Amino acid sequence: MFSRDTWFEIFSTVRKNKLRTFLSGFTVALGIFIFIVLFGFGNGLKNQFKEFFLDDATNVLTIFPSKTSKPYKGFKTNRQIEFKNDDIIDLEKNFKFFLENISPRITRYAQSSYKLESNNYRTVGVSPSYIYFEKHVLMKGRYINNDDVTSKKKYAVIGRLVAQDLFGTDVDPLGEYINIDSSNFKIIGIFKDSGGDNEERVIVMPYTTRQLLEKSNDKIGQILVSFRPELGYIGAVAFEDKIRNFFEIKKSIDPTDPRGIFIRNIAKDLKNNQTFSSVLQYIVTFVGLGTLLAGIIGISNIMVFVVKERTKELGVRKALGASPNAIVGTILLESIFITTLFGYIGMIFGVVLLNNMGSSLAEDYFIKNPYVDSYTAIFSTIILIIFGAIAGYIPAKRASKISPIEAMRDE
After folding, report:
1. In the chain, N or C: fewer CB atoms in 10 Å?
2. How far is Cα 100 from Cα 163, in angstroms, rounded to an integer?
3. Is 82 left (phi over 0), alpha (psi -120 to 50) or beta?
4. What pTM does this model have?
């Protein structure tokens, strides 16, 4: 089956039927190419979801106050719920077992300037633990600390692009003062954030200082709490329910009111999106397998035609003493050779295309760094080769059973 003469016959057949060989091979190559690309896109979509969520901590609940939609205990509908400093204290007291970090957040946009340079930036009044929620990485200086919060100091930690916009490359921002809404703040640190430009055009200050600028009130915009990672997904959902129940009681909100308090559970969002991306990849894989199946059917049809075309030749060979196994082996080897050669060509082109895409699809199609691991690429190609062999074996086996006389009469 693997003799030199057999291979010489196969190459001779391929040379004589170049178009037929190309078409059968192209079907195989296209099938594996499309499968590799689609599977890689599915992995790229997972990468994008992972980057989107893992830029910040994932064991986080963000609690937002809202307006009620139902009257309750003498309070009217559309009552605006407000958070205050004592809510932070109560959360720390009542949920000590669950809590890892907690920070208020007061978000305002403010005109900020240094000498002749100015721009409108997002400012956040927070506590020192905010660095763990946003995963800020300090480039210079330090972050705000508890003493800054207690003393209501006018200190600011600025994002990398804020420093770039206001100070350029010639001035070191540390120790300099910037004007934020007519108040001078001393810059004590510069941070970077992997979340992109918007996350690096932010100014961080103590939340008590932000309250001081707003007529010394004690109001808070949102509250961020992180829970112990060992709680897991089920624990995160239970913790969310406890927080919701706590505020419904404290703020006199109807337990059946869907509004009043809104809680964003990052763990829940992450799980939902992971489930969505996994289902989407299953769909993509199913489509890719359908393409592979089309390739297998294509080469099967071509091999049926090849055997039909060579019926007289096979009859002559049987008349000259060729065994049925020798006939099957020759046709089967030709099918495997074409499938293997073009299968790996399609696989290589698919892998190269994915490697060259990188992040080019991330902005418009949410596909970042699409890839396919070597195991999947090689395994899918081997599967195609196996089915290609089966596709060649069936018509070859049928042809080996034809008697020489019947083969010579075939038109």
Report:
1. C
2. 31
3. beta
4. 0.65
HEC assignment per residue over the chain: CCCHHHHHHHHHHHHHCHHHHHHHHHHHHHHHHHHHHHHHHHHHHHHHHHHHHHCCCCCEEEEEECECCCCECCECCCCECCEEHHHHHHHHHHCCCCEEEEEEEEEEEEEEEECCEEEEEEEEEECCCHHHHHCCEEEEECCCCHHHHHHCCCEEEEEHHHHHHHHCCCCCCCCCEEEECCEEEEEEEEEECCCCHHHHCEEEEEHHHHHHHCCCCCEECEEEEEECHHHHHHHHHHHHHHHHHHHHHHCCCCCCCCCCEEEEEHHHHHHHHHHHHHHHHHHHHHHHHHHHHHHHHHHHHHHHHHHHHCHHHHHHHHHCCCCHHHHHHHHHHHHHHHHHHHHHHHHHHHHHHHHHHCCCCHHHHCCCCCCCCHHHHHHHHHHHHHHHHHHHHHHHHHHHCCCHHHHHHCC
Angle between helices 18-54 and 374-400 (to 10 degrees): 150
In the chain, % of residues over pLDDT 70:
85
Write out pLDDT tens, residues 376-394: 888 878 887 787 777 777 7
Q: What is the mean pLDDT of residues 115-128?
A: 95
Q: Which tens digit of pLDDT belongs to each residue from 288-309?
A: 777 777 777 777 777 777 676 6
Single-letter residue type at 299: I
Q: Tell me which of 33-42, 212-221, 236-245 is least confident.
A: 33-42
Arithmetic mean of pLDDT, 178-191: 95
User: What average pLDDT is seen over the chain?
Assistant: 83
Cα 280 from Cα 293, distance rounded (Å): 20
Per-residue pLDDT, averaged over 11-38, amounts to 79
